[in-house]
Design a protein that fits this description.
Ubiquitin-like (UB roll); four-stranded mixed β-sheet; 16 helices; 4 strands; Ubiquitin-like_domsf
Length: 402
């Protein structure tokens, strides 16, 4: 760089004690690496007729191209950055001005850098998954589902225990769930089956982790649930996703930690309660005596969603008060209709159970199933004014010997 730049650097340094100088206000010490050596220049050495305009030669680190920047000796480094942005199209926030050299051979180097990132292995693995998915979507026959599954296995194998949440956040923010569901929605059967295999592999890996780590999976599984519910609500893969979501919710609820996350997802998990309750009602009112009550597995699935949903409803406000009638058209109102349907279905189912017991004797297993359902119904009744009384009337009127 020419002596002209040397002069500019010296003038900048001599102004360091001037209260009007703004160089250090914007973190100049972080922008100029290493720090420029300050040179003291007496005020008398400056000629009164000297121009305040400077011509600075900045050499690009990539390619070695030199850019000329015109500036005033009183300009701030921030202003210099913006002039460089106009010349080079490199955003100012991504520029690094590096001062290097001695007084007689000074130079400024402009380097555009990508921001460093944590967990580079996670980012690389996620990029590999996305690349493989889009190659399959383009019809590239050299990519198979085994490629994606192998990358998924690598993702979980390299995931540190202390960085589980960070890895899964990268997985979610990179839109991997959306890409896999897009692949599943593909008209090509090979793509559909491949995506199904990869999504189920992810669910299996989720369930295999310890309970205290499954809370990190909740946002990702919830995203899969949202997408699959829109794309294929009647597909078995959606049912599998719903079951996985229920297991994760149950683990998080049972641990007692991070329950606050339920406050923001009540509306999203409500459809699961509605869908499963509808199936329970159907089995409760079935006229086939041999069908019996819903299986314990069904009841457990409803419970896994109901507990977090109840927590969400009861903790929306600092103090919970019983919900009064008439109800609004929101989750609480819709849930009340489910409560009514389950209550009526319980009445019919228990009446049928009474007749079966009268004809065939004790059927303790079926009784225990009804008790599990009654526990859920009773829990729902605790949210509404007059809810407990309705459950009590059902039991008193029927005189059920459970």
């Amino acid at each position: 760089m020419t002596r002209r730049l040397t002069s500019s650097l010296s003038h900048r340094s001599s102004s360091s004690d001037n209260p009007k100088r703004k160089l250090d206000e914007n973190g100049v010490e972080n922008l100029l690496l290493p720090k420029m050596k300050r040179h003291e220049v007496s005020a008398e050495s400056s000629s009164g007729s000297e121009s305040t305009r400077l011509q600075i030669f900045v050499r690009m680190m990539s390619g070695g191209k030199t850019t000329v920047i015109h500036a005033d000796k009183n300009d701030t480094v921030e202003q210099l950055h913006h002039r460089m942005e106009l010349k080079t199209k490199i955003p100012a926030k991504e520029q690094r001005v590096i001062y290097k050299g001695k007084q007689q051979d000074s130079s400024l180097h402009l380097l555009g850098r990508m921001q460093s990132t944590e967990h580079p292995v996670a980012w690389r693995t996620v990029d590999d998954i996305m690349y493989a998915v889009f190659r399959m979507l383009r019809g590239d026959w050299f990519v198979s589902v085994n490629n994606i599954n192998d990358i998924l296995v690598t993702f979980f194998d390299t995931m540190p225990k202390k960085a589980t949440c960070e890895y899964l956040e990268i997985f979610l923010n990179s839109s991997v769930p959306a890409a896999l569901v897009m692949l599943f929605a593909s008209p090509l059967e090979t793509n559909k089956s491949g995506a199904k295999s990869s999504i189920k592999l992810f669910f299996a890996s989720c369930i295999d982790l310890p309970d205290h780590q499954q809370r990190c999976f909740l946002p990702v599984v919830l995203e899969f649930f949202r997408l699959l519910r829109k794309v294929c609500p009647r597909n078995k893969l959606y049912v599998s996703c719903r079951n996985t979501l229920g297991s994760v919710l149950e683990s998080v609820y049972s641990s007692g930690e991070s329950r606050s996350c339920f406050l923001s997802i009540g509306d999203e998990i409500f459809p699961c309660v509605r869908e499963l309750a509808k199936l329970m009602v159907k089995q409760l009112v079935d006229d086939d005596d041999d069908s019996g009550p819903p299986s314990p597995c069904y009841v457990q699935k409803v419970s896994s969603f109901w507990q977090p949903l109840r927590y969400s409803i009861q903790n929306q406000a600092e103090t919970f008060t019983l919900i009064a009638l008439p109800l609004q058209n929101n989750v609480q109102g819709k849930l009340y209709h489910i409560f009514e349907k389950l209550l009526n279905a319980m009445g019919k189912g228990m009446s049928r159970l009474e007749s079966i017991l009268a004809r065939r004797g004790a059927v303790s297993a079926k009784c225990s199933h009804y008790l599990a359902i009654l526990k859920i119904v009773s829990s729902m009744s605790e949210l509404y004014q007059g809810g407990k009384e309705r459950v009590a009337r059902l039991l008193i009127q029927g005189s059920y010997n459970l």
